[in-house]
Amino acid sequence: MKILGVDPGYDRCGLAVTERDARGRDSVLASGCITTSPNDAFEQRLLVVVQSFREWIVTHKPDVCVLERLYFTKNQKTAMRVAETRGALILAAHECGIPVHEYAPNQVKVAVTGNGRATKDQVMNMVQRITGVVGNSGFDDEYDAIAVALTASASLRT
Amino acid sequence: MKILGVDPGYDRCGLAVTERDARGRDSVLASGCITTSPNDAFEQRLLVVVQSFREWIVTHKPDVCVLERLYFTKNQKTAMRVAETRGALILAAHECGIPVHEYAPNQVKVAVTGNGRATKDQVMNMVQRITGVVGNSGFDDEYDAIAVALTASASLRT
């Protein structure tokens, strides 16, 4: 099963495709981070993200698309734009016929590190240890996308 | 100038097309409310809303699409889904080449009633008085869509 993990954002959007081999080991087939220009209007940045996302679907033909659930914290305006980006991505996946699953942040932390209160760095380190991947983009979003894909891999198996 | 006003939602989504005549009077060319089934998954409801929205764009050829800005209040989960729907609609408008504008709730209240603290009923009554429209759908969302279109009509003129 090929899993497309997404860390949604309109500024940066992490993407990762993982696959589990016969021995139950997850490998990362591709990972990266889409970035958009702060000089562009929000709707244009949204379009850039969704177009790249659709290209990843065409290229990698995932069986499922998974996202981390978003909770609102401090910056409402940013959170709103991220939620809007999530919606555009969820629709794009559905229009491509790809089922969408969502996982809570603590589910991701438990699946990857065994600890629901793990820090961002702990998640990133475990992602590197599990998959051997050293991200290309230099952005956390890439690791977060891998992390949610690994969560789905463990969850969908059981 | 034809304005497509939207009151975004995945449960119900209000839509209205207004146009201002030579004497500066706004008329409502069409208004209604898309409804989706609570039995469907969110992504399917999102698709139903966005497909109808695209049909309205094709049918009415608006020059601009306008939405009321959303603020998070009590029910985070619902607000998140509404924000996601907004994002899918904003992208759909942009992909159709329609510029998108957003207005704060108090801008809408001021534009329609002259009072930034107007109640929902006061806005609805003024929408009926200004446009002569009695909504077909029986849902507030239809009036809210007209209200934001009227706001844009006043704002884009000045």
Concise synopsis of the structure shown:
The structure is a homodimer of 158-residue chains. The first copy, chain A, has helices spanning 42-60, 76-95, 105-113, 120-131, 140-157, and strands at 2-7, 12-20, 26-35, 64-68, 100-103.
Task: Provide structural commentary.
The structure is a homodimer of 158-residue chains. With 158 residues, chain A is α/β, with parallel strands linked by helices. The first copy, chain A, contains five helices and five strands; from the N terminus they run βββαβαβααα. In chain A, strands 3-2-1-4-5 form a five-stranded mixed beta sheet. In chain A, α3 crosses α5.
Number of E-type strands of chain A: 5
Question: In one word, what is the shape of chain A?
Answer: globular
Identify the biggest protein-protein contact and residues per side.
Answer: A-B, 25 and 25 residues
Following the backbone from N to C, one meets helices and strands of chain A in this order, namely EEEHEHEHHH
Poorly predicted runs of 5 or more residues of chain A: none
Distance from N terminus to C terminus of chain A (CA atoms, Å) equals 13 Å
How is the main sheet of chain A built?
5 strands, mixed
Mean pLDDT of chain A: 92
- Based on the structure, what is the oligomeric state of the protein chains? homodimer
- Bin the helical content of chain A: 40-55%
Q: What is the alpha-carbon Rg of chain A in Å? A: 15 Å
User: Numbering strands along the chain, what is their spatial order in the largest sheet of chain A?
Assistant: 3-2-1-4-5
Beta-strand content bin of chain A: 15-25%
Helix/strand structural class of chain A: alpha/beta
Number of helices of chain A: 5
